[in-house]
């Protein structure tokens, strides 16, 4: 089956009220706060849709009011940028939240999570590989990183209150953090929506107090003694842009939290509230990290910030780090559980979330107590932008090509007669675009373990975050339109595209 046929089959008629935000209706019994969510990746029928798009703001803000963005902001100063250069890079990198917002609009349209919608781009079988790598593996790695960040802050908190952070105490902290995270994730969508405002408000209050003390010590005219100039400055700014953009690009799961909204929910509202919920805290906390970097050495920010914080607030700050790691992991664990189902694991969502949590905890414990596993994980995540950028851009291009019309029930048909079966279960338009986009992005990457030849020729400038999405989406659009315009040779279009993928 060709790309052309699948587009026609998957599209649903546009709703005449598609730009109107539907008032919140009664919450169905399958999705109530305090009860374990009954749905996994299955289609959400119209009778069970509820809520408003603006609820998405608190959901995404809860997950992104996190200490990690303060660290990333401080990293911009460590790269040698001055305050205003660093601020510009932070804003520029976080503009990729607009892409996350675009992906979220497919949730109300399809009634299914992102891991299922992606079958329209990669095919039933091709998408299993795509979700296994881009969705599940990277998500579990982030789960481990968040657990480690929260655990280290928890260890420091125990020392601050006069206790000894012995091995049993440390193990208890790691396990307790994971249990709270997994409990919220297992309860699912409605519970996440309900608690998101509480967590977000508490974390924002702590960050506001932190900002008061940081601003008092900040130097807006700070310039590093070895500040880069010319080509070196360009290279540092590009590396910083890639680091910042890796945050929003790790969230290809926008539809997961919007799929319960009524189909008539405004796509603009869905995209705007999603993007703003991630963009606002990421930029504000990143800017706070920049200012902190002018006052303390951000190579060890958790300890260094103690020098400018009053004694009474430092333990509160450490607790805020722990809570922030939990809230970020709630969405990560929830989506990774759905990803595991999309890969083909025949188990309930609660079980897949629990399994992912066990894997994440195991990786975190290994990193904390056995080996410096995080160095390897961080190196892998540095290169993940080359995978994530093209993947999210292809997703966004597909939404535009289909005018956001998805038949959620057809997307769940995994048989050879499915409209997303394509050729042998693979949509070679999407696979080829992903391979080409990732390949060219790797040529432009500059990480601690690998520098592409293009980056080397440009003095270390990392353009992977721009090249990957642009090339990936352009290839996908061109190949899809090519198969549409050649109906007489439709049966040969997919083999030709497959050959191109093999050559790439």
Number of domains in the coordinates?
Answer: 1
Q: How many individual β-strands?
A: 0
**Average pLDDT, to the nearest integer?**
85
Percent strand: under 5%
Residue stretches low in confidence (pLDDT < 50, at least 5 long) are 14-24, 487-504
From the coordinates shown, what is the CATH architecture? Answer: Orthogonal Bundle
CATH homologous superfamily placement: Hydantoin permease
* Shape verdict: globular
CATH class: Mainly Alpha
Structural class category: mainly alpha
For the record, give the distance between the C-alpha atoms at the N and C termini, rounded to a whole number: 23 Å
Over the alpha carbons, how many angstroms does the gyration radius reach? 23 Å
CATH fold title: Hydantoin permease
Total helical segments: 23
Q: Can you put this structure into words, describing what you see?
A:
By secondary structure, this protein is mainly alpha-helical. It has a single domain, classed as Hydantoin permease (Orthogonal Bundle). The protein is 69% helix and 0% strand. The protein contains 23 helices and no strands. The longest helix has 37 residues, at 124-160. Mean pLDDT is 85; it is low at 14-24 and 487-504.
List the helices and strands and how they pair.
Blueprint: H1 3-10, H2 55-64, H3 67-78, H4 83-94, H5 97-104, H6 106-110, H7 114-117, H8 119-122, H9 124-160, H10 167-187, H11 189-217, H12 231-249, H13 254-258, H14 267-293, H15 301-304, H16 314-343, H17 349-369, H18 373-401, H19 408-411, H20 428-443, H21 453-457, H22 464-485, H23 490-503
Helix pairs in contact: 2-11, 2-14, 3-12, 3-14, 4-12, 4-14, 5-14, 5-18, 9-10, 9-16, 9-17, 9-18, 10-16, 10-17, 11-14, 11-16, 12-18, 16-17, 18-20, 18-22, 20-22, 20-23, 22-23
